[in-house]
Design a protein that fits this description.
Helix content is about 45%, strand content about 15%. With about 290 residues, the protein is α/β, with parallel strands linked by helices. The model has no long low-confidence stretch (mean pLDDT about 90).
């Protein structure tokens, strides 16, 4: 209902189509709904999801596509998913929070050498190291800036070796309106967000950075807050991987990977938006929706 209303009020959000042509049997709002329900219910296979939808959800959709058509529509709807994601996020009560948490998490894309050699992701995906789990991996990194309630405010998908500090600065430069109305924003990161020049650049954006002290540094302000608040971003990452199957998404091309990750970010924001509107105490809880 919300997506349908948004697209009716702002038709420019939907993908462009010629004035004369075949009208899709599945509307853009229904496509977004199907995508969110698939991620929410834990279906990593599109074919299995559509079989389940035909068996149990035919009363909700006048038309359900075959798997190739659904896959093609979803890959072409990346911009639509991104726009709906931002509209829902800004419609929550926690969008204006003055404290953000930043981190990145691995998005593994393959393990065998043959996969690495043949994958269309080669050149974007690369080998990297995850210090949290003490392992090497081949794939990408999802960089997230979230509120303390776990609402994604900004995000980026990069190669595994991308510098987290440079990615964060690029995110802020790409969306200057995020900070235009937020003077004195506080950002909490881990030890990787260090450097005098980096701190000065954040200060120019009006951001106060809080992070743990690195080895050899004096104790930094706010140290007693780091451990409990850092657990928030780790919990958000676990929601993506444990409940929304971030690393079992089966995307084999750049467009497929981006669409499926956007699908999961939209799903999390949809749950937070609905929990916020319905007055639930835990905004990031998916328990009421995943069965």
């Amino acid at each position: 209902m919300k997506t349908d209303d948004l697209l009716k009020a702002s038709p420019h959000l939907a993908p462009w189509r010629p004035a004369v042509g075949i009208t899709p049997n599945l509307t853009d709002a229904e496509l977004v709904t199907l995508a969110v329900m698939q991620a929410m219910l834990g279906f990593t296979s599109e074919a299995k999801w559509l079989r389940h939808a035909r068996a149990h959800l035919r009363h909700l959709f006048l038309y359900l596509p075959q798997q190739p058509g659904y896959n093609k529509r979803l890959r072409k709807a990346t911009d639509l998913l991104r726009r709906i994601t931002r509209l829902l996020a800004t419609d929550t009560s926690v969008w204006s929070d003055d404290v953000w948490i930043v981190d990145s998490t691995p998005v593994e894309c393959g393990r065998s050498r043959e996969t690495v050699k043949r994958s269309e992701l080669a050149g974007w995906a690369e080998y990297g190291y995850c210090a949290s789990h003490s392992r090497f991996f081949w794939g990408l990194r999802l960089h997230l800036v979230c509120t303390l309630q776990g609402l994604p405010v900004a995000f980026a998908l990069t190669g595994a070796k991308a510098d987290e500090r440079e990615t964060l600065l690029d995110l802020l430069d790409a969306e200057p309106e995020l900070l235009a109305t937020r003077p004195g924003q506080t950002l909490i990161g881990d030890k990787n967000y260090f450097g005098r020049d980096f701190g000065h650049q954040l200060a120019e954006h009006g951001i106060r950075l809080l992070r743990p002290a690195r080895k050899g540094e004096p104790k930094r302000p706010g140290a007693e807050l780091f451990k409990p608040l850092r657990q928030v971003i780790e919990s958000v990452n676990e929601t993506f991987k444990g409940q929304l199957n971030l690393e079992q998404r089966h995307g084999r091309t750049p467009a497929g990977v981006v669409a499926r990750i956007m699908q999961r970010i939209l799903t999390l924001i949809t749950a937070i938006w609905h929990n916020d509107r319905s007055g639930q105490p835990a905004l990031r809880s998916l328990t009421a929706y995943d069965h």
